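Lab meeting, action items carried over

1. Structure of the two-component assembly. Owner: GW. Status: complete.
Input record:
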Amino acid sequence: MKNVFFTVGPTQTHPKLGEYLNEGLEKGIYSISHRGKEFGGLFAHTVSSLKTLLKIPPDFHVFFIGSATEAMELVVENCVEDKSFHFVNGAFSKRFFQIARELGKHPEECGVPAGEGFDFQKTSIPKGTELVCFTQNETSTGVKIEMSGIRALKLKHPDTLFAVDIVSATPYAPVDYGVADCVFFSVQKGFGMPSGLGILIVNDRCIQKSQVLHGNGINIGSFHNFPALLKSAGKNQTPETPNTLAIYILGRICDFYLEKGLKQIQKETDEKAALLYAFLDNNPRYPAFVKNETWRSKTVIVAETPEGSAGVIKKLAGQGYIVGAGYGEFKDKHIRIGNFPMHEIEDVRKMLKVLE
Amino acid sequence: MKNVFFTVGPTQTHPKLGEYLNEGLEKGIYSISHRGKEFGGLFAHTVSSLKTLLKIPPDFHVFFIGSATEAMELVVENCVEDKSFHFVNGAFSKRFFQIARELGKHPEECGVPAGEGFDFQKTSIPKGTELVCFTQNETSTGVKIEMSGIRALKLKHPDTLFAVDIVSATPYAPVDYGVADCVFFSVQKGFGMPSGLGILIVNDRCIQKSQVLHGNGINIGSFHNFPALLKSAGKNQTPETPNTLAIYILGRICDFYLEKGLKQIQKETDEKAALLYAFLDNNPRYPAFVKNETWRSKTVIVAETPEGSAGVIKKLAGQGYIVGAGYGEFKDKHIRIGNFPMHEIEDVRKMLKVLE
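Predicted assembly:
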């Protein structure tokens, strides 16, 4: 029996992953020079396919880096001289805040209890804030935030840069590139890939900010600072020898998703999410952790486990269904279920049968 | 006809790569949690196998990062408050120097013309130097340096940290861990892997230095600073979701190399290098770029191409042998030939036949 990974990332890999991996090997893609024409074509194709899939405007730049965590560091280094502001409702939004502090900045935060979202209209952003940071989908708690809420805030702060962590939301959840100046994600969630590649997407305002900081003698990092990434991307290259395998696979999976259609992916995600939440709402042994329906993520579904999570996880694993434990302090109090494009509705049904 | 990549990295992939990639997929390794037991075992195995293969002393720590270029940034951030010193004889040693400058440090350099090595005994290291940086094998020019030369210098500067870039030298060239405080490499050279994983190996003196810098309020980076990497490594983890695929494959290839024996790998490398240099020394159309035999790298062999490199590269490619162009200003003046464990002596012979 092969396991089905309903974990929140790394998770079930894309069904075509094996085929793509082997084709890459056959074609010699893992041997080609990262300074040559063939790599340039591959780079350009992945960027183009990703931009089409995620509806990224032409004036945004796509950078390939190591992880979403690295993206947090780069965004702070390149967009903040002193003050960032963070909406914190879980471990990953908190991490963004902490990275800013570790880099010697003076971040502030608006915190709410785990499982809750934000009232953006009531939050006042401190004067002098250079960057406001959001987490579209807090993977530790299963809370999502809506782009419309971010838009309302942006209207009040048009000159402040907005960064959105879209890690476990993309490609399902739309991004309003009129309000987000930069977004980032990693490929081991909604793209069903092996981990090890981060994608950072920034507009010219972020580039300009990094240039101003650099001009003022602020440390913006070295090989992966925005001007360096931009210069290389202009040649369809990366500053260092990159994860060519992952850039290639990402392009193939974007093509696959485009062929299938993002609308269809969203429809299937909604159907599976409805099934999962209906089960939780009708089953007192597994109540949904996020009570407010508008805050419930469609891609990371968190259930409370009043009888402890270990037994539930073991029971599911015994039938080949791997789900995640709660995050941090919730390790034994929650299970977390990923709902990504690779997950089949039939498997969701079977998994819920085991849970019943 | 399948190409044989004699490029200097990315290069010919390991013959077992396809098998290992597919086994990883079959076993679900690209889906497992990077915070779980199975990943911990995999991490520990790769570290252990690598330490055995490269004879790394137990008190050195192995960190998995994105690239050797990232290693340069991390080493400077974590080991230098103000002054590093760099032996520069090509593009990659120069890069290390430039990264230090970009990070706001005040590096100095000892430069020699491309194709030449160093007289370490005659070089005086400036007072106050915190870190001395060496490139064991300058991939841009094919010049190697000997650990014995570094040792002589270390005896004069026992309190200064020494960092050695072993990118295209390892696993062939031995490292004297009595004189190197940290070394780093990437896996797309001597390990025949897809690029996208850097390995950084540091001793406790480097860790202590990073702690002192941090204590003094110096920015040592965030998620990948040495204390963070060490804390995670202590749990057989990485701070971020890592390139699990590559960590797994690296472990398998280390096992393969251990089975074969490093001595055998070194013997074969020497034989192929002897064949290559003998050809160049007897063929005025392709004189070896490095004239001094003691400076000649065994793993990156650079030949001058008085008639231009493009025609030579094309001729070889027509027969399925891919070699690299010269680096930077030498693009049309050199070809570069990788001599790594994956390269078969029979293929070297056939390639040289085409060159004749």
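2. GW to write a short summary for the group page. Key points so far: The CA atoms of residues 83 and 129 of chain A lie 5 Å apart. The two ends of chain A are 21 Å apart (CA to CA).
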